[in-house]
Structure formats: C-alpha cells, structure tokens
Amino acid sequence: MSNEQKHIVRLENLKAGYKKGRSKISLLESVNIEVHPGELIALIGRNGSGKSTLLRTLCGLQEPLSGNVLLYHTYIRKYAISERARKIAYVSTDTIHAGHMKVKDLVALGRTPYTGWLGKLSWEDNAIVLEAMEGVGIVDKQHEFIDEISDGERQRTMIARALAQNTELIYLDEPTAFLDVINRFEIFHLLQYLTRDKGKTIIFSTHDIHAALAEADGIWLIENKNIKYGAPEDLILSGELEGIFNTEKVQFDQRNASFTIKKIFGDTIGLEGDESIEKEWTAKALERLGYRIEKDKDKIPSVHVLKSGEKTIWKLQKKSGSVELKNIYELSLHLRKMLN
Questions:
Q1: Average pLDDT across the chain, whole number
Q2: Residue 5: what pLDDT?
Q3: On the CB side of 138, how many CA atoms lie within 13 Å of its CA?
Q4: What does the buried/exposed string (b/e) look like for 252-287 if buried means 16 or more CB atoms within 10 Å of the residue's CB?
Q5: From CA 275, how far away is CA 242, in angstroms rounded?
Q6: Most buried pick, 292, 298, 312, 330, via CB within 10 A?
C-alpha cells in the first residue's frame, strides 16, 4: 500500500493564524505533516503558540492563511458543512451552557448531521447514542442535568457527543483542562481506548505533557511557528522537549520525562542505606530542601535509611550525635532547624 493511501489527514505547506483588521497574524508556517488512521496525537506548545488555531483550521472552522488541509485526499474546503460533520467531530474549550439539558439529550446532538436539527432519532440513532455513553462510562448519568454532574463527567459527555457523530476523526481542544489528576488520566485512558479498540483517529491539544508523553502515539510540538513531530520517545531523546520548555527556573528531565524546578544547592549531606523506594524518595526530599548529596560514607551530616521488615527509620547523624526519626516529614523539620 502506498503512502498516498495511508494517511487520513495531510497538511501541505500550511500557514495558520488569524486576521486582525487588514493584517494577517501568522502563528504556524510551512507545516507539512500526515496523520495515519488509528493514531493518538498530542499537540503541545507554550501558551499562544497556536494550538487552538491549528485545531480550528484542521476542522475547517477557520481558513488557513495559505497552504492546504486535505481530508481523505480531498481539500477540506471542498466539503459541504453537513458532509464535513460526518467526517470530523470537534470538542472545543468553550463553556457548555446547557444546564437545562440532560446528559442523553446533549449526547444525542451528535446525531444532528444525520437527522437535522428537527429530526427525530430513529432506533438506530438511539442505539448509537447509548453506545457512545457506554463507551465513555456515563450511562448511569444519562437522565441527569448537565449542571448536576461533575467537570469530569461533563467532559466525558462532550466526548460521547463526538462519538455519537460516528466519525473516524476526532479533534479535542484541551480535553483535560480544569480536571483533577484522576479525571485527567481517566480521560487520557479513554482516548487511548478509542484509538486502540474503536479505531478512531484523535488529535488533542494539552498542557499535560507528562500524560501526553506516556499515552500518545505521536507528539506535535509547536516551536517558532513550526511543528516538530515524532514518537514521544524520539522528541525526548533528540532534546527537542528540553530545548523548548527549559527556562531559567524550570528544567526537563529526559530520564524521567518530567519537569522540575532548578535547584540552587547549598550545603552537602550524605545518604546511606540499601537501595529502596524509601531511599529514592529521601534523596528527592533532600534535594527539595536544597542539599547536594555526596557519596562519602564519612560525610556529616548524613542520613541513614534503615529498614527492618515493614518498618523504616531515618537516622540523622550530626556532629552533636544522632537522632532517629519515623518519617521524612520529621527529618525535614530537623534539617530546616540545622539550616537556620
């Protein structure tokens, strides 16, 4: 099979932005990328880099400044709105003003491209709506009003509406915004399930870089009006992520794929004990407190992590003697007193 047959979306020398008066403000230039069926793509970049603008351009809701967006090998501008709605589902960041609607009614709006605004749902339409709610886990909420459910459930409802459109391609703008950590990871897991098990192709923007690196098949990284793309691991190993997001105060850890605040270390301290998860987290705590760890067994002060069965003791050795502590919090308090 040729590459021409494989892609579902293709960007050709795309220039995206917006018009301000008579001026054209460019956010992205010379973008050439292909998206293949079944991919989960995370779009990341700094605030104002053009993530939302790009998604609206891909949907056909916003005209490109130049270049082309092809959907199924056809220029997207050639599709009628009704035809496009049967091929693309889009979930924006706009606030939902539908408190008077029940969950099922909002999800059923996804069938509008097939029924029309005044169309009555057929048995098949109702079955698709039910399947969409089952797919995102909100069947038990279907008779509740939108303003009575949680933020996470509301986001699932919007994704269910997109699923009810029965399109192969779904775009989502910040689907995990304002959600707590549990709901964020559940949404990411849901997106992965939709691509892996349901064959959907999904492109979503996010600021949750850690989760995106863990779950997405590909990353589109916006930098300097261009997009660098590849597998998450490729962008980590190449240093692209580190180069974009490193600042004077924040750094990207390639090994752990995480962001940390750059520390200004003061005093040094020793750390002893058998290798264990307790020792690893003790090291993180010491660095958080501004200590640089030295591997000198005779170093004073030093911390000894002592494990006996299920019990752990932290022994702080000082010039004046030693003290045994029952947790890292107590250790932190003693070390702060030493610093003062």
A1: 89
A2: 47
A3: 33
A4: beeeebebeeeeeeeeebbbbbeeeebbeebbebbe
A5: 29
A6: 312
Pairing assessment for the beta strands 302-308 and 292-294 based on DSSP bridges: unpaired
N residues, the chain: 340
pLDDT digit string (tens) for 172-208?
Answer: 999 988 788 888 888 898 899 999 998 999 999 998 8
Report residues of the chain scoring pLDDT below 50: 1-5
Angle between helices 123-136 and 181-196 (to 10 degrees): 130
Task: Please state, in angstroms and rounded to a whole number, the distance separating the CA atoms of residues 299 and 166.
Answer: 65
Taking a C-beta distance cutoff of 8 angstroms, is the pair 331, 283 a contact? Answer: no
DSSP string over 268-328: EEEEESSS-HHHHHHHHHHHHTTPEEE--TT-SSEEEEEEETTEEEEEEEETTEEEEESSH
**Domains of the chain with CATH codes:** 3-258 (3.40.50.300), 268-339 (3.30.160)
Find all residues with CB under 8 Å of 81, minimum gap 6, and list them: none
The CA distance from 338 to 323, in Å, is: 13
How many Å apart are CA 32 and CA 113, to the nearest integer?
A: 30
105: part of which helix (H) or strand (E)? helix 103-108
Cis status, amide bond into 37, omega within 30 of 0? no
Q: What share of the chain is helix, strand, coil (3-state, %, to 5)?
A: 35, 30, 35
Name the pTM for this structure.
0.84
First vs last C-alpha separation in the chain: 69
Task: Give the whole-angstrom CA distance, residue 114 versus residue 128.
Answer: 12
Amino acid at 61: L
Please provide the DSSP assignment of 8-56 as one string: SEEEEEEEEEEEETTEEEEEEEEEEEEE-TT-EEEEE-STTSSHHHHHH
Query: According to the model, what pLDDT value does residue 340 have?
Result: 63
One-letter identity of residue 199: G
Backbone angles phi, psi at 139, to 5 degrees: -60, -40
